[in-house]
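Per reviewer request, we include the raw input and output of the structure prediction for the construct analysed in the revised manuscript.
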Amino acid sequence: MIIADSDGTERYRFEGYLPPEDFVAQLALGLAKAHFARGEWRQAEERFRGLLERHAQSEVAPEALYWAGVSRYKATGDASALQETAKAFQSQYRDSSWAKKASVWAS
């Protein structure tokens, strides 16, 4: 599955069979990443957070949490968005590679 902008620019890709719940979570991640790539920070954050609400147990949820924090930071310039994201990883998805990536934001 390829998610592309109207001009054909590829924004996200995933391959192979996935059960319906995982497929929908991957689509949601791809749409959020498309907003992010276009610099639509608020829409990206909204989509990443929506994915977290609806697919909290999916394998892409930790990545969505990470990018939700980055999106908020990009929209506001407020570094506390990154610190809050690092703190959220302490209680959720703490063993994920995304938690390790966010650990540098902890104060």
